[in-house]
Automatic annotation (TrEMBL):
The protein, known as: Acyl-CoA thioesterase 2
Catalytic activity field: a fatty acyl-CoA + H2O = a fatty acid + CoA + H(+)
Organism name: Planotetraspora phitsanulokensis
Domain Acyl-CoA thioesterase 2 C-terminal: 178-282
The protein's assembly and partners: Homotetramer.
Highest taxon above the source species: Bacteria
Keywords of the record: Hydrolase, Lipid metabolism
Pfam families per the UniProt record, alphabetical: 4HBT_3 (PF13622), Acyl_CoA_thio (PF02551)
Record-annotated Acyl-CoA thioesterase-like N-terminal HotDog domain positions: 31-109
Entry's family note: Belongs to the C/M/P thioester hydrolase family.
One GO term of the biological process aspect: acyl-CoA metabolic process
Entry keyword annotation includes Hydrolase: yes
Record has Ribonucleoprotein as a keyword: no
């Protein structure tokens, strides 16, 4: 297990400071705001710690209200909305500086038998082992630029392999612009058999590339001073058990953008083609006027 993954697992080990009140921290990095996937994952951990282990997460709906401050802890307040015979509902509010920065509603469900169908099929894409790593692709984009060298050399908690173009590649070559973004990902370590942990880590990874999918549709990329973006809301549905230490194909698309907002949706498939997770996110995308006119 590399140091980056160990750090993520440590971040998910929240401190309980009172009944239904938990405290989480952020990585010791010089970043402007807390990564949205981290807040969502920590909120999900907080909710899960108030629910019996026989109930699995089946959906979450979240709003990113304010940027998180990475310099101070985040307090997660859990409200026990309902404990029913089959379903359990929790509401989580993340607080910093006395104000809510994030809210999430989470629903848990006991395992039940029922009718079953899957109307979508996994896209036909190369096997993950044949796709270059993110770092290899980025080295081809930026070369030996010292401004990127240290960032690319850092270990990452998630092994992500992009089947389509990176946003930086599409920025240089408009023929690569697309509203679809397919990414294989996995956590490269043997993880415990805790179903909640795998759901939480899927939530953490789900926020890495959805805004990218909107940018990719316009040939825009992070790092440019004229592009600003942030997650606004996030919803996930968990359809079946899965493992994040095995490959998952994250098939994403952006059906719409406008009014400084963009919509992205994604589906996570197991290697056998089973639909495991559905995701929808709306994000803020602000671009300077000179870019929009070009």
């Amino acid at each position: 297990m590399n140091s980056a993954l160990k750090e993520v697992l440590d971040l998910l080990d929240l401190e309980q400071i009172e009944l239904d009140i938990f405290r989480g921290r952020s990585p010791e990095e010089r970043i402007q705001r807390v990564f949205g996937g981290q807040v969502a994952a920590q909120a999900l951990v907080a909710a899960g710690r108030t629910v019996s282990s026989d109930r699995m997460v089946h959906s979450l709906h979240a709003y990113f209200i304010r940027p998180g401050d990475p310099a101070i802890p985040i307090v997660y307040n859990v409200e026990r909305v309902r404990d029913g015979r089959s379903f359990t509902t929790r509401r989580v509010v993340a607080v910093q500086h006395g104000k809510a920065i994030f809210t999430m509603s989470v629903s848990f469900h006991i395992l039940e038998e029922g009718v079953s169908h899957q109307a979508v099929t996994m896209p036909q894409v190369p096997d993950p082992e044949t796709v270059p790593t993110f770092q290899e692709r980025m080295f081809n984009v930026v070369g030996d630029d010292p401004a990127w060298r240290d960032w690319l050399a850092r270990p990452r908690p998630v092994d992500a392999r992009y089947v389509n173009a990176l946003t930086w590649e599409a920025q240089k070559d408009p023929s690569l612009i697309s509203a679809k973004n397919h990414v294989w990902f996995r956590y490269d370590a043997d993880l415990p058999d805790d179903p909640l942990l795998h759901v939480v880590l899927a939530a953490y990874a789900s926020d890495f590339t959805l805004v990218d999918t909107v940018l990719l549709a316009h040939g825009l990329a992070w790092g440019a001073s004229n592009v600003k973006g942030a997650s606004l809301d996030h919803a996930m549905w968990f359809h079946r058990p899965f493992r994040v230490d095995d490959w998952l194909l994250y098939a994403q698309e952006s059906p719409w953008s406008g009014g400084a907002r963009g919509l992205a949706r994604g589906e996570m498939f197991t290697p056998s083609g089973d639909l495991a997770v559905s995701v929808v996110q709306e994000c803020m995308i602000r671009v300077s006027e000179d870019v929009m006119k070009s």
